[in-house]
Amino acid sequence: MNALHTLTSIHTYPIKSLAGISLNEAVVQPRGLQYDRRWMLVDDTGRFISQREIAELALLGTALEAPFLTIFSKKNPALRLQIPLEPEVAAMPEIPVQIWDDRCLARVYASETNRWFSEQLGRAVRLVYMSGSTERMADSHYAPENMPVSFADGYPFLLIGQASLDGLNGRLAQPLPMNRFRPNFVVTSGTPHEEDQWRDFRIGNQAFRGVKPCARCIIPTTDQDTASRSEEPLKTLATYRKEGRKILFGQNVIWLGTGEGRVQVGDVLFPE
C-alpha cells in the first residue's frame, strides 16, 4: 500500500441487515463505527434475523436524525418509526440473543416497536439493542483477545478497495453497486484485492489492522433496492475468488485505538 490510497466513502448499518447510511465522517469505536449494528432483529427464540432468510430487510431504510434513529419503508416512506439513538436501557428487559455461535445479552424493545417491524416483514420479530454492558468478542483466532464487536457477523469493520469491485464488474454482464457488499469503508486501490494483504495501516490519524479476508454469504446476491436475488455476483466470484469452500471479497478490520476516534471521506491511508 502507498500513501495515494484515500477513503472514498463511509457506511454504517445501525440495524443489522437493514439498509445502510452513507456518511461524510464518522466516530470510530472499538466495536465498530458509532451506532453500527448496535440494533438487531431476532425471532421468538432470540436468534438473529438477516437478509439471508428475509431479503425484504433490504427494503427497510434507516436514517440518523439525532436524537433519533429513523426506520422507514423504501416502498412507502410515510411508514416510519423513530427510536432514540441513546435508549433508556434501564427500562428495557434483558434477554439472551444468538448471533451465529455467539450468545450474549441484549435489551429488548416494547411490544409497539416490535409490532411495527413485524407488520412490515409479515412475521413476528423483536428489536434488540446492544448496550455498553453487553459482552461479545471477535474471533480471537484472528483478532486480539477480548476485542469487542457489535452485532456484525464477526468483526468491527469491513473495508473494500474500489479496484476489487471494478475488477469484478469487468467480468459481469451487468455491473453491480458496492452496496451489495455492505462495507464500512471503501477506499481507492491500485489493484483488485490488494486490501487482502494489508496488515497495519492508518486512515488519517487512526490506526487499523486487517485481520482476515471476508468470506461472503448469499447477501451480495440480493438487490438492495428491490430485494430480488440472482446468481451473481457469487457465481462469477467463485471462478476466481474461492479458497476452499469460501468466496472472499473485502477485508475484515479492527481499530487499534481506545475510546473514540474519527475518520472522514478524503482521509489518506498510510501503511504503518
Mean pLDDT: 96
Residues in β-strands, percent? 25-35%
CATH class group? Mainly Beta
Number of helices: 3
Shape, principal axes of CA atoms: globular
Question: Looking at CATH, which topology would you report?
Answer: M1 Pyruvate Kinase, Domain 3
Number of DSSP-assigned strands? 19
Uncertain segments of ≥5 residues (pLDDT<50)?
Answer: none
Explain briefly what this protein structure is.
Helices cover 8% and strands 35% of the residues.
What's the layout of helices and strands?
Blueprint: E1 7-12, E2 21-23, E3 25-29, E4 32-33, E5 39-42, E6 60-65, E7 68-73, E8 80-84, E9 94-99, E10 102-108, H1 111-121, E11 126-129, E12 157-161, H2 162-169, E13 185-187, E14 200-203, E15 206-215, H3 234-237, E16 242-243, E17 246-255, E18 261-264, E19 269-271
Parallel strand pairs: 12-13
Antiparallel strand pairs: 1-2, 1-13, 3-4, 3-18, 5-11, 6-7, 7-8, 9-10, 10-11, 12-17, 14-15, 14-19, 15-17, 16-17
Polypeptide structure, described:
It is a single chain. With 272 residues, the chain is mainly beta. It has one domain (7-271): PK beta-barrel domain-like (M1 Pyruvate Kinase, Domain 3), CATH 2.40.33.20. The chain is built from 3 helices and 19 strands. The protein has helices spanning 111-121, 162-169, 234-237; strands spanning 7-12, 21-23, 25-29, 32-33, 39-42, 60-65, 68-73, 80-84, 94-99, 102-108, 126-129, 157-161, 185-187, 200-203, 206-215, 242-243, 246-255, 261-264, 269-271. Strands 1, 2, 12, 13, 14, 15, 16, 17 and 19 form a 9-stranded mixed β-sheet that branches. Helix 2 (162-169) links the parallel strand 12 and strand 13. The protein is globular.
